[in-house]
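User: Teach me something about this protein's shape.
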Amino acid sequence: MSEEREKIHYTREVFESTRNNNLYGYNRFITKVLGDPDITDKTYQNPAKANLLRELDLMVSELASELEKAPELLIEKAKAKNVLELNQYIDNQLLKIARLRMVIEPEFMTNKQVHTQTQRPYIILRALWLDDNMRKIKKFSVSLGSSDSLDNIDTVIVEREKFNLSKMLENLYKETYQ
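Assistant: First, the predicted structure itself:
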């Protein structure tokens, strides 16, 4: 098991052992975000993703350790006046982590569309993002050209456009959080 995977496994153990002892309880976002990262080994081996992976590991570790502390310390750090504000703080941290994961390993959809005026089929590649309610939405789209089927699209073009959309997601993340 790689060092990054061991850290995530440790973080998951800390999360499991502490979730009963904090104000946030069994919130489904904690389970979804801290429970399993779904990052492939190929991504861990990609040197271009190393800084983002370190940032992700740091964010997950910090949040897990915050949830492990006494509720008073978490309330102080979150500058929360009540439990709702504390939950909002935790939700925002979880959303930031989940969005960073989508930058590290973006999700794409390809769709076949028909042009309304010419009735010619074309292929659209869409990059997914998380809205403020942690629902996946289609954020960026690019046309891959006219085609009757996905099989006729050049894989070099698809990979280039995926790279471009990935950079757009990364820029969106940076604009949102920095």
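Now, about its shape. The beta strands are 108-114, 121-130, 136-146. DSSP finds seven helices and three strands in the chain. If you'd like, I can walk through any region in more detail.
User: That's plenty for now, thanks!
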